[in-house]
Automatic annotation (TrEMBL):
SUPFAM superfamilies, per the entry: Winged helix' DNA-binding domain
Official protein name in the record: GntR family transcriptional regulator
Entry keyword annotation includes 4Fe-4S: no
SMART domains xref list: HTH_GNTR (SM00345)
InterPro entries: Tscrpt_reg_HTH_GntR (IPR000524), WH-like_DNA-bd_sf (IPR036388), WH_DNA-bd_sf (IPR036390)
UniProt keyword list: DNA-binding, Transcription, Transcription regulation
Record carries keyword DNA damage: no
Leader peptide range in chain numbering: none
Organism: Dactylosporangium roseum
Amino acid sequence: MIVIDAASGVPPYEQLRTQLARQIRDHSLAVGTRLPTVRNLAAELGLAANTVARAYRELEEAGLIETRGRAGSFVAAGGEEARERARRAAADYAAVITGLGIDAEEAVRIVRAALAATA
């Protein structure tokens, strides 16, 4: 079940993306599960279709879902691969930060700023 909090400071697409990603990671949504169409989910949640499309696009870029043209969007098997890529990138980042002499707190602030810039 997806719940969008209109009073939240978090944009609706991010609330949707986060909740779907969590459900995929905890296997509430199994690999191969067909997701609702963008229009149907938008209508169900009272969101604009572009909002849902953005969440789906970001989930697809993360390897958590795949779109099969007119057949729809499905939970991808690559979610584990995406997390492994993220872990490797984090290890590489940690090595660079250590080599530059930047402390962990500053490194985390840099990552948060970079994530905020992509939102």
